[in-house]
Amino acid sequence: MTDDEIRFYRASEKPYGAFSNLYRRAIEFEGETFATSEHAYQAGKARKREVRDWVLSAPSPALVAMAAHGLYYWDIAPGWSKTKFDRMRKVLRAKFTQHEDLKKLLLSTGDARLVESATVDNEVNRLWGEVNGTGRNMLGQLLMELRENLREESDGLARRAA
Minimal CA–CA distance to 153: which of 87, 114, 112, 106? Predict the structure, then answer.
């Protein structure tokens, strides 16, 4: 890790554990209140309402993720592989705009590269983060994109106010 890189993984880590989708902070999304951003994200994955409800009933955000990752192909919403990143983008926007402290934390990272740094090597961890420096780090990428968008919006508001 360098000064221009921030690694996070566990929701309990201070201060950047808040970047984890397992971080316990409720968000409003699509007209519902979800316990975490993981809940809001995974709510879009199931094809049927009863499967969605089962996934979301797991007793912790980590188990919600585990249940959703274990769904059979026929239980997954059509097109999920094409829509999941847009859904995560919207979920993250909700999380970081509804909680001013989280927004400030994200903006405080400057231009640092944000990396979800997992320890268990599997396909999901290499998609959303990195394991031993290998992976697409999509969560980190989407957080950095959101950070830039929030900055641009803030600059635009400041210019209009001036």
Answer: 106
Type and span of the H or E element at 27: strand 27-29
What SS3 state is found at 101? Answer: helix
Rounded average pLDDT over 68-94: 97
pLDDT, tens digit, 9 for 90 and up, residues 96-118? 999 999 999 999 999 999 999 99
Length of the chain: 162
Phi-psi region of 118 (alpha: psi -120 to 50; beta: other; left: phi over 0): beta
Residue found by looking up tokens 């599997």 in the block: 122
**Which CATH number characterizes residue 64's domain?**
1.10.357.40
* Domain extent for 84: 5-161
Q: What are phi and psi of 130, to 5 degrees?
A: -130, 145
Cα separation, 88 vs 91, in Å, equals 5
Q: Token digits for 16?
A: 């950047």
Domain count of the chain?
Answer: 1
